[in-house]
Amino acid sequence: MKKTNHFVVAILCAFMLQGCRSQSSRELKDGFADPRATEIVEKVVTALGGAEKFNAVRYLSFHFVVARDTVRASDWRHDWDRSTGEYRLQGRNDAGEELLILFNVNNRRGEAYKNGQTMEGEQLSSLLEFAYGRFINDTYWLLMPYKLRDPGVMLTFDGEQTIDNQKFEIIKLAFAPSAGLTPQNVYRVFVDPATSRIHRWEYFQDEGKEPRPALWVDWRSFDGITLAVERVFEGRPSRLLFENIVVSKDVPPGLFTAQKGLAILE
Q: For burial by CB atoms within 10 Å, which of 33, 86, 142, 163 has the most?
């Protein structure tokens, strides 16, 4: 990967280490959550709209933008039909080439175009792998609060911490070793007990390493579900922006066809 992609991958979420089980923990498929963590997570999901509303969302669209100071380093558009698994990723790579990748997240099969030209063979395989990685990571940065109860998630209550005279409840977030793309990652999620919203998380590339904190700011409502549309990285002039978010029960016709995608490229 080139420089910009290295930065993006370094900050992106993935899937994490297995912890110790206890008889009092709520068992999940290949994961668990202790009682206090379960209570906090249920409050978070309810405060942000609830699992029922989120599960009713069929179509999700957003731009994943990496900004450094006033410069937009990258901008990738995502479109997802959560019912069928159809996915569309569009953006420019570091070389300035326009990429359009249409695939299904369930089987990772699809087609890819570079500057409007059809890719085949190893180039196609590489772009499909790239697109699937962006799907996993970019959607997780946006949707993490709604995915805290996914299969393989391991949640433990990690105490309380006061920052600037405000107290937060902390959940340690990890994944079973078989889940995700980077199972060594660990997160500490700071929840504001007054609002049950995520205030920040600390990302550990490996447990015991220095954390990379990011603030979750600018919460907005989209068709009944609430999302934070900006991440501010402490100690760095970098931000993640989620722009042009669309949440709907309806999918725009033809969006996941090559003809529609190429027409948009033009």
A: 33
Type of residue at 251: V
- Write down the pLDDT at residue 261: 64
The type of residue at 259 is Q
Output the average pLDDT for the chain.
86
Contact 207, 193 (CB under 8 A): no
pLDDT tens-digit profile of 201-227? 998 866 666 788 999 999 999 999 999
CATH number of the domain at 211, please.
2.50.20
Domain that holds residue 112: 13-265
Element spanning 178, H or E: none
CA 42 to CA 117: how far, in whole Å? 47
Strands, DSSP E only, in the chain? 26-28, 31-33, 59-68, 71-81, 86-92, 98-104, 110-114, 117-118, 153-163, 166-175, 186-192, 197-204, 212-222, 225-233, 238-248
Sign of CA dihedral 112, 114, 120, 123: negative
Of the candidates 77, 23, 119, 121, the one whose C-alpha atom is nearest the C-alpha of residue 243 is 77
In a domain? residue 209:
yes
